[in-house]
Design goal:
Order of helices and strands: HHHHHEEEHHH
Helix content: 40-55%
Largest sheet: 3 strands, antiparallel
CATH topology of the largest domain: minor pseudopilin epsh fold
CATH class of the largest domain: Alpha Beta
Strand order of the largest sheet: 2-1-3
Structural class: alpha+beta
Number of strands: 3
Shape: globular
Distance between the termini: 30 Å
Bound molecules: fe (ii) ion
Amino acid sequence: MSIALPPLPFARDALEPHMSAATLDFHHGKHHKAYVDKTNAKIKGTALAGKPLEDIVRAAKAQGDDELFNNSAQAWNHDFLWRSLSPNGGKSPTGKLKAKLDSAFGGLEGFQETFSKTAAEHFGSGWTWLCQKGDGLAIIATHDADTPIVHNGLRPLLTLDVWEHAYYLDYQNERPDYIDSFLKNTANWAFAAANLS
Ligand code: FE2
């Protein structure tokens, strides 16, 4: 059995004007789909066929299979990305997550500042993550396909893709504007809160 390309959790135009349907057509329909297809081609007829995607990512890492790791981790990261976005995003987190953000970053503004800086200064392709680390929170950057699920002690809560394919159609080379728009308009705090252990 193969892994599936999960449908977007919102309509393709639901994030406009912050993220266009055209971006989602390419990003979900072409880029994400290619990672899923390449993962399926690599696992076909192997012991990993039929396993959950997380297991495939971890096995590829353990086996040092870079091609399978890169494609399966990107499939997992993009699935997590779509759920990190919401047409009703960008509002203030509440409850336990708000308390943790206050404690780690001195509040939402402090979080936004650190997240923006980390995402904007990340060199080349990769991802910026808000993770739970023990009882606290941490913002981390990963390069290329790297993902917190293969790093002990990190539990991803929210992510932003900073590969150029994520923002070029809408923001050209202005990555900081794309990050700013995510934080103000589409960051899905309900999803992040639900990911807390
Ligand atoms: Fe991407």
